[in-house]
Automatic annotation (TrEMBL):
<dbReference type="InterPro" id="IPR014710">
    <property type="entry name" value="RmlC-like_jellyroll"/>
</dbReference>
<dbReference type="InterPro" id="IPR037923">
    <property type="entry name" value="HTH-like"/>
</dbReference>
<dbReference type="Pfam" id="PF02311">
    <property type="entry name" value="AraC_binding"/>
</dbReference>
<dbReference type="GO" id="GO:0006355">
    <property type="term" value="P:regulation of DNA-templated transcription"/>
</dbReference>
<dbReference type="InterPro" id="IPR003313">
    <property type="entry name" value="AraC-bd"/>
</dbReference>
<feature type="domain" description="AraC-type arabinose-binding/dimerisation">
    <location>
        <begin position="81"/>
        <end position="192"/>
    </location>
</feature>
<dbReference type="GO" id="GO:0003677">
    <property type="term" value="F:DNA binding"/>
</dbReference>
<keyword id="KW-0238">DNA-binding</keyword>
<protein>
    <submittedName>
        <fullName>AraC family ligand binding domain-containing protein</fullName>
    </submittedName>
</protein>
Length: 225
């Protein structure tokens, strides 16, 4: 699975080639001709301002989806954005630079970054080695789906619940899993399940995510001891 994720997808190949391209008029014209059949991604690199700066849940989630997990494309142009759902960024391999609320945070392999809705952020992944996975979680159904799995006064519990019941909202949590193999395996299972997308997938993903939260909280408590 990891070896498959390291391989470049077609959009990443386009983004990478343009990133390293000497931006002469001729080179850009040749690049346009080469990728004329991929108008969407070609437009992204030529006009990155078109990238969506605010995303709604319905932009990503199907009606019966509570969880989505995606591979972040390497070399996609950097852009600041926010969204209506929760996000967990996981660095499976390599490193990335996260900009959030005017802060710059370096993320390394094993880092988990829990990001709240409506928080402006952007991420840079401009190398070949990094594999970054984004877990998107609906805010609108979170309490109904996951509240039974949360323990009061856990850090992760406080993070999620602050966006429903308190004025002092927690913007993000950032911690290192020390490349915990259980956390890694659950996230990889989630990625595999997301690619299946049958009538059982949402149920499986929700149970795996609940398990992931428990392992994250256990790891945090061990780290704090």
């Amino acid at each position: 699975m990891i070896n498959k994720l390291i391989q470049f997808d077609l959009d990443e190949k386009l983004f990478r080639e343009y990133y390293y391209l000497e931006k002469t008029a001729k080179n850009i014209q040749d690049f346009k001709l080469k990728y004329q059949d991929d108008a969407y991604n070609l437009n992204i690199v030529l006009n990155p301002e078109i990238l969506q700066t605010h995303s709604l849940e319905e932009d990503y989630f199907e009606k019966n989806q509570d969880i989505i997990i995606l591979k972040h494309p390497r070399y996609i142009p950097f852009f600041i954005h926010d969204h209506d759902y929760f996000e967990i960024i996981y660095i499976l391999k390599g490193n990335a630079i996260q900009t959030i609320e005017d802060k710059v945070v370096e993320l390394q392999a094993g880092h988990l970054f829990l990001l709240a809705p409506q928080i402006k952020h952007g991420i840079k992944v401009f190398n070949d080695e990094t594999v970054l996975l984004n877990i998107l979680i609906r805010k609108s159904t979170f309490l109904d789906t996951f509240s039974d799995y949360m323990k009061e006064h856990d850090i992760t519990f406080d993070f999620f619940l602050s966006h429903y019941y308190t004025k002092d909202k927690i913007s993000y949590l950032h911690f290192h899993s020390q490349e915990d193999i259980q956390i890694q395996n659950i996230i990889l299972q989630m990625y595999q399940e997301n690619n299946i997308q049958d009538s059982y997938s949402n149920t499986v993903l929700c149970h795996l995510f609940s398990l992931l939260l428990a392992y994250i909280q256990r790891k945090i408590k061990k780290t704090l001891k």
